[in-house]
Amino acid sequence: MMPTETSVQIKRSAAAHYSSEPGAVVDAQARRAMILEELAAHRVVRIADLGRRFGVSEVSIRRDLERLEQSGLLKRIHGGAVSIPGLPSHELMSARTIAYAREKERIGRAAAQMVRENERLIFDSGTTTLQVARNIPGNLLTSGNLTVITASLPIVYELGAWKTVHIIVLGGVYLHEYQVMVGPQTIEALRGLHADTMFLGADGLTFSNGVTTANVLEAEVDRALVRSASKIVVVADSSKIGVIGLVTIMPLTKINTLITDDKAPPDFVARLRSEGVEVITV
């Protein structure tokens, strides 16, 4: 993904608070980013160690870990936290992910409310689509007769615990950085399958280049997934608006619904609505 002025400012802002010295005082956002850096490197963190490092109470560290768990970025354990199996390390290290964690969570909750009984769903990869899966109402997970089609391992990990959710896992070449299957085998596995709704993530949203992503192989699979769904719901925070990724998945005007946060530029939202696309801001 091409860096934007906003993302550069976020990273500079976070970096300005970072310190490797134990006991150094940092603000909450920067502290959480540093906790995720530690988690990406070691896969486990301890509350007592983090408290000493940042010079804050263990209560504050527990609050940080709770917030990060709610955002789908780690799993709390007794005395600390561990990384989530299948969550890409680049997501843990992303300053943008930290800055927009609350927005992603709100977007995921709103999108999950669109799920209905007996639906066949396609899930793209990414932290925002993972939030959609994580927020599907419990009654639908236990008795909703849902069918899920995905090539994303984090989605499989999230929904695989529910015996009543029918999961079709698309095989293919494993793309480690994104924890997703890609390639001609993945596309072939889609042959003959049809879904009611697809939840699609994005690295960029522009009228000139449409819905874009950073990886060519993943884009090929996404296009095939789009063709297999009757309704396309794009879930993307406002930092993606105005950004052009490496390769286009589909035109903006061909999606059915965009769910984004309330920081989305009003002129962008108005124009997209005028094109007949439903836009939900949360």
Describe this structure in words.
The protein has 2 domains: 9-15 and 25-99, Winged helix-like DNA-binding domain superfamily/Winged helix DNA-binding domain (Arc Repressor Mutant, subunit A); 103-281, Rossmann fold. Helices cover 42% and strands 21% of the residues. It is an alpha/beta fold and 282 residues long. Helix 1 packs across helix 2 (28-42). Helix 13 (266-274) links the parallel strand 14 (257-260) and strand 15 (278-281). It contains 13 helices and 15 strands. 42% of the residues are buried.
Labels describing this entry:
7-stranded parallel beta sheet, Arc Repressor Mutant, subunit A, 3-stranded antiparallel beta sheet, disordered N terminus, 13 helices, alpha/beta, 21% strand, 282 residues, 15 strands, Rossmann fold, 2 domains, globular
Q: Tell me what portion of residues adopts beta-strand conformation.
A: 15-25%
Task: Supply the CATH architecture of the largest domain.
Answer: 3-Layer(aba) Sandwich
Strand order of the largest sheet: 6-5-4-9-12-14-15
CATH secondary-structure class of the largest domain: Alpha Beta
Q: In DSSP terms, counting alpha (H) and pi (I) runs of 4 or more, how many helices?
A: 13
- Given as residue ranges, the uncertain stretches (5+ residues, pLDDT < 50) are 1-25
CATH topology of the largest domain: Rossmann fold
Strands, count? 15
Mean pLDDT: 86
| Content-based structural category | alpha/beta
Radius of gyration computed on alpha carbons:
19 Å
